[in-house]
Amino acid sequence: MIRKMGVVWHLRLRMAEKGMFQTSALAPLLAERGVDLSREQVFRLVTQPPQRLSMDTLAALCDILDCQPNDLLEVKVVNAEVRKTAGEAGPSQPRPRRTTIRRPDLT
Fold it and tell me: Has residue 99 been placed in a domain?
């Protein structure tokens, strides 16, 4: 088993705590801090955990919401099974069987 890390994104929760319930309210506040994002980019930033996040954007969000980075992201361990290599011991998987179709004799 490999230890895989995941992130829980709390931006929407932090926005709600500050009385911000629409993603469109965030764009002008980010722009005031030099972070220019399109309406779609702001929507994705709020509604789903970002795969990449610039330090400028993170700093702007923390300033806007008066919080620290760890208030926005929570790092969690997400365990995922990894395929075993040929030399490793482990439970063997049954091999798929080839299907044989038998037709009745037509004689």
Answer: no
pLDDT band at residue 23 using 50, 70 and 90 as cut-offs: very high
In-domain check, residue 87: no
Whole-model pTM? 0.69
Contact 4, 77 (CB under 8 A): yes
CATH number, domain of 38, equals 1.10.260.40
How many domains is the chain built from?
1
Please check whether residue 102 lies inside any domain of the structure.
Answer: no
DSSP 30-79: HHHTT----HHHHHHHHHS--S---HHHHHHHHHHHT--HHHHEEEEEEE
Position 41, amino acid: Q
Residue 97 pLDDT greater than 60, yes or no: yes
